[in-house]
């Protein structure tokens, strides 16, 4: 009898209208939550896929900006690792407005960020969000956008999940950039190597031909450097090469191309520069090297001989180089530590 009553009660509970009405709602909510989570994970997977297509930092930031656009309207995305020469930016604006945004971004990324911050940029009437991407405050991500709040923060958990996903690909791109840069630079002086010099020289020649700008090639060779190596050792010779390279790099403009192309041989391309102005600059460099007063016992002080050649329209790099090298030989044979062209 007890068993019969219990079974009847159980049947009643199964058809209880209150329970029957409640369970579908719970199930629907669970299904909707599952769909939202599936969509969120799908979007994060798509971000991973797009970032995985490149190891270039500029391309990664551009891909992140495109991925974020359907969810959050924004004008600029920027990333910078402290200690790096430049920030990597993707900006959708043009003209003077673009320049103002990029100036703002550069200033904001200069400051170390220990936690997420936001603010208003008065002169452009836009807002920014900035997040640190590592606990050491070495790098950060910046977003400039038109709204005071970001919808993507809520729907994607941008501050936690997405930024965590970004860190790994960006770190890999930084490591690749370092390896690539090391392969293209002289390990001792930090100047670009001959291969890079020749690549960029052809680019400068094309630009000069297109815009009609003058271009000068300087071939440079250190005088009496062999005596320093032979009498004081290669360690002292390396120190001298570093000092001379630093003197060269500090004297020329950022737009000029300076390379170490051999043991004590250097080359330089002076952009938008006449032969007369190049001669003046190189004479100054000769004087600066002499003033360093570096020499081995019983040997004349270190100097630099320079050969200059003006690029002629449609002239090949090989022909141009031969002219500068011939001028360098004349400088050497005429007494050294001087400029010839």
Characterization of the model:
The strands form two sheets. This protein has a five-stranded antiparallel sheet. Strands 7-8-6-9-10 form a five-stranded mixed sheet, sandwiched between helices. The chain is built from eleven helices and ten strands. It folds into two domains: 42-183, GAF domain (Beta-Lactamase); 194-340, 2-Layer Sandwich (Alpha-Beta Plaits). It has helices spanning 2-14, 17-51, 57-68, 95-110, 151-156, 158-183, 194-211, 225-232, 234-251, 275-291, 317-333, and strands at 76-81, 88-91, 117-121, 126-132, 139-145, 215-223, 257-260, 265-271, 303-310, 339-340. Helix 2 (17-51) packs antiparallel against helix 3 (57-68). It is of the alpha+beta class and 341 residues long.
Indicate the topology:
Blueprint: H1 2-14, H2 17-51, H3 57-68, E1 76-81, E2 88-91, H4 95-110, E3 117-121, E4 126-132, E5 139-145, H5 151-156, H6 158-183, H7 194-211, E6 215-223, H8 225-232, H9 234-251, E7 257-260, E8 265-271, H10 275-291, E9 303-310, H11 317-333, E10 339-340
Parallel strand pairs: 9-10
Antiparallel strand pairs: 1-2, 1-5, 3-4, 4-5, 6-8, 6-9, 7-8
Helix pairs in contact: 2-3, 8-9, 9-10
CATH architecture of the largest domain: 2-Layer Sandwich
Q: Can you tell me the overall shape? A: elongated
Summarize the amount of helix as a percent range: 40-55%
pLDDT average, as an integer? Answer: 86
Task: State the CATH class of the largest domain.
Answer: Alpha Beta
Question: Tally the helices: what do you get?
Answer: 11
User: How far apart, in Å, are the first and last alpha carbons?
Assistant: 120 Å
The secondary structure category is: alpha+beta
What is the number of independent domains? 2
Radius of gyration: 32 Å
Task: Give unreliable regions as ranges.
Answer: 1-5
CATH topology of the largest domain: Alpha-Beta Plaits
Count the E strands. 10
Order of helices and strands: HHHEEHEEEHHHEHHEEHEHE
Strand content: 15-25%
